[in-house]
User: What shape does this take?
Amino acid sequence: MTDIHAYDAPASGAAPEAGFGDYVALLKPRVMSLVVFTAFVGLFVAPVRVDPFIGFCAVLFIALGGGASGALNMWYDADIDAVMHRTRKRPIPAGRLAPGDALAVGLFLSGLAVVMLGLAANWFAAAFLAFTIFFYAVVYTMWLKRSTPQNIVIGGAAGAFPPMIGWACATGGVSIESLLMFALVFFWTPPHFWALALFMKEDYHNAGVPMLTVTHGRHATRRHIFVYTMVLAAFALALGLTSIGGPLYLAVAVVLNALFIHGGWTILRRTEDQAVADGYRAEKSFFKLSLVYLFAHFAALLVQAMAGAW
Assistant: This one.
């Protein structure tokens, strides 16, 4: 396993001046889009109505907090990113952005996001956002990611908090509905990333990241994926029985979870020889399905709430 240390820029000279796109990439916009969407749904489906402008500001500051987490993650993980094929073109390992600049951006946006969310919504939601940033940047990035194959399981909580923060912006608290939205993202995260790890194992191995595929092998990872799809389905369907669920959401959840369980079962039954022979086609299909799965569940919650309002 690689030693934990901040990334040192190449000694050939100072990093060139970064462009606007590099700073955008630093905030992990694809991850931020998931944060924004789930936080917005959490806020919108809450039983307390929020002024549209305040709601917009709340989601904006949650997004900034998510971007700050991404910047801090890229600062600390630059040594890993430089080794992995899918991340080596990120701004820091590619030499377009100095590590110190990334750290400064992450810290500044963290403070700005937390303070402004407290002023725009409430201080409970702001404290929740501060804890989420800390959990992702310190607990997951600096500790779990490099020390345990449970990294993505426990660390996945950071990505599951945004809908709870959105709900807290509206209500000032936590409820069974927000906890089940958390559970939906939390139990989705391991099979999503483990499916990726099945066909990207060498990346994690070369970087010294103790992903489950590296420490326990692909066969054990396949078993874990199937177990988590079953647990995930239970929480996804349970969410449909709460005040924010309904027939439309339940219909979507039944179809998607049937497809997801089938995909998990297909992966479980495959041998490594079969996967290599077809280029991990089933694993890649499952990974793509997982992206649709989460978006569609939260979209169904949103449409269900809009239908209820009408």
